[in-house]
Amino acid sequence: MSRKKAQKGVRTLTSDDDLYQIFGNDEAEAEMEEEVTRENFSELLEQSLADKSGKTLLEEKGSLLKKDSVPVHELIKEYPEPQAELDLHGCTAEEAVSKTMSFIQAVALRGMRTIRIIVGKGLHSRGEAVLPGVIEGEMVELKRAGKVLTFTWEKAAKRKSGALIVYLAGKR
Questions:
Q1: Of 16, 112, 122, 165, which sits with the fewest C-beta atoms within 10 Å of its C-beta?
Q2: Torsion of CA 152, 154, 158, 160, to 10 degrees
Q3: Span 73-168: which CATH code?
Q4: Mind spelling out the 3-state secondary structure of 58-88?
Q5: What does pTM read for this prediction?
Q6: What is the pLDDT of residues 54-112, one digit of tens each?
């Protein structure tokens, strides 16, 4: 079997080399190591759980879940008043979406956590207001993507309000 090494120490194979012998043994060794690791893990797990009852384990799990699952309305109590605002009056739907996305990215990079996006009530629109629905839809998508923790209409109702308060996700 050839043991030639290339310039950078990588083994060079020839047509005379038996690939099973070269690579097969490594695979068998890796399988044995994995089995030993599994056995060690099993032993360690058994040892760590030996003195705990099922009830104790469930209580520990429950307390961990409670710590991690703080309701959103509790989280936003820690957030500041809006730190920046974007006024979208006079924008088309496409412009409003583009400006909103750029604005959110910029304020997030500056570490801001709460923003106001003014969409207007549509009082000067021909027909129904477009921006409130379009921007609300974008906030829903950003929330799904994990970039926005939550958002709310400033005056608690979409029809009464011309602005969204947006709570950005991220470091607290």
A1: 16
A2: 160
A3: 3.30.1370.110
A4: HHHHHHHHHHHCCCHHHHHHHCCCCCEEEEC
A5: 0.59
A6: 788 777 777 665 555 788 888 888 899 999 999 999 899 999 999 999 999 999 999 99
Q: Which of 153, 148, 162 is nearest to 118 (CA)?
A: 162
- Please name the residue ranges forming H helices in the chain: 19, 25-49, 54-68, 72-75, 93-109, 131-144
Residue 122 CB neighbours (<10 A): 16
Task: Sort strands 84-87 and 148-153 into parallel, antiparallel or unpaired.
Answer: unpaired
Token digits of residue 48? 């760590």
Neighbours of 117 (CB within 10 A): 27
